[in-house]
Structure formats: structure tokens, C-alpha cells
Amino acid sequence: MPSTTTYAPSARTTPTRLRERVSYDRDAVHAALDEAVLCHVAFVVDGAPVVLPQLHARVGETLYLHGSTGARAMRQAQTDGIDVCVTVTHLDGLVLARSAFHHSANYRCVVVHGRAHLVTDPAEKDEALRHLVDAVVPGRSDHVRGPSRRELAATAVLRLDLVDVSYKHREGPPGDDEDDLGSPWWAGVLPLRTVTGEPVPAPDLVPGVEVPEHVRGWARG
Amino acid sequence: MPSTTTYAPSARTTPTRLRERVSYDRDAVHAALDEAVLCHVAFVVDGAPVVLPQLHARVGETLYLHGSTGARAMRQAQTDGIDVCVTVTHLDGLVLARSAFHHSANYRCVVVHGRAHLVTDPAEKDEALRHLVDAVVPGRSDHVRGPSRRELAATAVLRLDLVDVSYKHREGPPGDDEDDLGSPWWAGVLPLRTVTGEPVPAPDLVPGVEVPEHVRGWARG
């Protein structure tokens, strides 16, 4: 019986090196997917790899991908789906070691392999698009005009089940060699994070509409 | 004769939609590649796509990719190279429209297609690794212990020529439909950017070593 707290490792998600950095923890995977605004989706066109950024939303163990940036992929998916690899990466810090060799990054990375299918059921598509808006800005879907029938038809959504999934991360200080510890070079971590600037209202905004709390309070990580 | 200021469009880099967002401007491509700490590299394994984050450095019209996270790719590359797609994405802001449909993101994205080759020449590899360290933290390579012969042998570097390259970006306010402009919803852009936290010295740092200027002054974008 599959574990409820971890994904089952597969040939594809079993690391060939740095095994200590890999896990299959569902909570860690969910948190990293949910925190990310965008993912990178790879697929194969005429035998060659292509990777593009896309917006995504996780709903339980399903990942929805928005169709706007991957028209080629959406057309390929129309018959019996398309094999994809979806990767989300959070760069948490630069790891500066005494040696060039041990320079690294602190990061959290989720990799999902599988066959993605076009969402054709209108109710599921409508719901998925709502989740896609809320994944970018939580609560936003209650403060917009919902999609018209024409807009729904112009939008493609892919669904991908979270089955073949791995989580890789590094944290903490540099891992310098013993011999380098006495050297005079500064070593440590430079933390990185994403922050928001002041919201920029649309120039044609109806006068008097204030920045709402779901925008003002947006934060990640 | 090829233009000196733009890349030549190819079948792969000619958009099927949203043509106004695509260009081939070398300066824009170089700036976006140089600003990014990491890229996403896609390749094909047993017919299926794989995409992983990696560190990169641009030197003129060459992109160097560090081997630490893509051991499978490095093995594939050993004979006559490996077809890759390298994508760098900067998420500059969330574009919040009055309609769900016109929600978008402001971004800059470079996509490079081509065959990457292992760097085998020791001098080029040594130089490429120096560039890889400096691409993450400019000036850093003068403040570290350089790689030993053993470390050089344990590191793989791929080189990819910048030939089949496109640049896609979106900026500015939401593009709502005329009919939605009078609606009461707030619309605008929430800018995003990456910032550094306070540098965290390694716990085993030699006492008295101060945070150097190349770390203190690190900034992107």
C-alpha cells in the first residue's frame, strides 16, 4: 500500500548522486509547489526538448497548468496527452565556500514527471481556472469578472497527477574541506528572497478604487 | 550576413501566438541571462522530457552550464553532445486585471535551443568554472581557493553556443477589455523582485574575517 506521507520513488526520481538531498515528502512537495508563482514545463517537440515558464495551481494531488504560454504543447496534448516534466525551484541563498569547488546554492526543487491531459470537462476547467487565479494571488478570484464562454474556449488547461514526484533541497552553511577551514576567505550564505514593491494601479482605474487587502498583503516564503 | 544586434529567428523560435512579445535582441538576451542566478535546462531521457535547475555563465556568445545537478545529462553528453533547451525566466510582477482571463505576469524570458557539448579542454574548463563562480557572485573567484586537479576532474561543464535564441517579455499594466474598464475591481501590477538578507557567516569561519564587499554589495535587477 502506498505511503500517505511520501511519494513512491521511481527509476526516474531515484538520484544517481547526492542522495542525501532527495526526499519524497508530500508536505514538502506541496509547500514548494504552492509557494511558487511559476513553474518550468518541459516537453518534447520533434525529438528535441523545450522548456517554458507557466503558471500552475495544485489542488490536492493534481497539478493544473495554464495554457497561455505553451500553445505547441497544448496542441500536442489534444489527442492522448503529452509527456511533461514540471519543475519548481526556489533559490533560497547563495552558498559561498572557501573553495570554488564547494560553491553551491540553498534551494528547494520539486520535479514532477508524467503525462498531462487537456481538461475538457467545462466544470473542471472553470474550477481549475479559479484555482489558477487564486494560486497566484490568494482570494483574487472573488474580486474579478469570471471567464465568459468565449474566454473559456480560448484557454487551455492541462492536468497532471502528482505520482512520480521528487523533492530535492539544500540548506545550511558551506561544506568546505577540512584543509580549507583555516583559510582567510570569507565563507557563508547570502540569503535571497522575493519581495513585493508598491502596487501600481492601472492608469485607467475607476477613481477611488483602493488597493485591496489580497493585493496589499500578498507574500510568499 | 547575420545581424550583429539580433539573433536570426528559426522555426523553433518563431512564435505561434503573441508575436508582439517576442524579439531576438542580443543585448536584451545577454542582460536577462547575466541577471539570472539559475536557469532551467531541459533534455530528453529515453524519449521523455526532464528539466532541472542549473547554474550558468555567459561568456560572449557562449553559455556554460555547471554539471553538478544534471549527472544524467552529463553522461549523455559525453559522446557527441546532448540536445538541450535552456530557459531563464525573470518574474517582474503579477498583472491583476478586472477579468480573470486577462490576468498575466510581467516577465522576461530567454529560451536557447541547441546541442551542448562537454568542455574537455583543461584551460577552457578552468576558465569556464571561474566564470561560473563570478556569474553567481561577481568578483568572487578572486577570493576563493581555486580548484585542484581532482576537483576539476569531478566537475562537468557543458558549453552551448547562443545561436537559436529568443527573448519574450511582457511589461506594463493589465490589458483589460473595453467593456470591463468601468468595473469596480482593482486592477494593476504587483511588482516583484529578489533581495538579499543579511549574510550568514559559516559557523567555523576564522575569527575576524569580515563580510567582503563583493558579498555585501551583491544585487540583481
UniProtKB/TrEMBL annotation, chains A, B:
Stretches of the chain forming a coiled coil according to its record: none
Among InterPro entries, the record links this protein to: Pyridox_Oxase-rel, Split_barrel_FMN-bd
Please name the Pfam families in this protein's record.
Answer: Pyridox_ox_2
Name of this chain's protein: Pyridoxamine 5'-phosphate oxidase
